[in-house]
Amino acid sequence: MKLLENLNWRYATKKFDPSRKISPGDLEKIKEAIRLSASSYGLQLYKVLVIEDHEIRKTLKEASWGQTQITDASHLFVFCNTAQVKASDIDDYLELKANTQNLDVGNLKGYGDFMKDKLTSLSPEAQKNWTARQTYIALGNFLAACAELHIDSCPMEGFEPEQYDEILGLKEKGLTAAVVATAGYRSKEDQTQGMAKVRKSADQLFETI
């Protein structure tokens, strides 16, 4: 299983080589892996910003505790969750589903009403937490895709979401930054690259019931 070999190869890269850039072809593969991610009900209530602009990234670095990955990596990905689930979000999904699968959208009304009842009845904070969790499924696909391409990556929660929201104008779009990740190529000076991977044993992690 090549995936296991690639996951053993990857690590949370702390120092990137700023001179090396991800090719357009590989970048599209990473984006497609994110797009194909699973999400609850299939709604994909998030948006992924791919930040290339260096000046914006310098500002975001200040909101990321000064971590150099933000500016030195080839690309910065900001996974933004929908702050509030609206009935129109579900209607848009049903329209997309009907068009994609050649269905009568009217036949999906019961399914849509079920989703609306379950999701719009949640408190605003619960909605925000739920949509934020969906972004982590996409993040997992991002990390696996990078590993398969032997592109280094680093998922990061060490940032100030409110500052990201302000810098990127996310609030006006009904979004909020949930998690960020950098992708590129490790620097030869990254001292963490040779360290053994620290993970719990299978016996500690799994229990068969």
Automatic annotation (TrEMBL):
Q: Which domain of life is it from?
A: Bacteria
Is Membrane tagged as a keyword?
A: no
Q: Which residues form a coiled coil?
A: none
Q: Where is the Nitroreductase domain?
A: 8-179
Q: Which InterPro entries does the record match to this protein?
A: NfsB-like, Nitroreductase, Nitroreductase-like
Keywords on record: Flavoprotein, FMN, NADP, Oxidoreductase
CC cofactor = FMN
User: What molecular functions are annotated in GO for this chain?
Assistant: oxidoreductase activity
Which Pfam family name is an example for this entry?
Nitroreductase
**Does this UniProt record's set of keywords contain Flavoprotein?**
yes
Question: What family is this protein classified in?
Answer: Belongs to the nitroreductase family.
Q: What is this protein called?
A: NAD(P)H-dependent oxidoreductase
- Organism source for this protein? Lentiprolixibacter aurantiacus
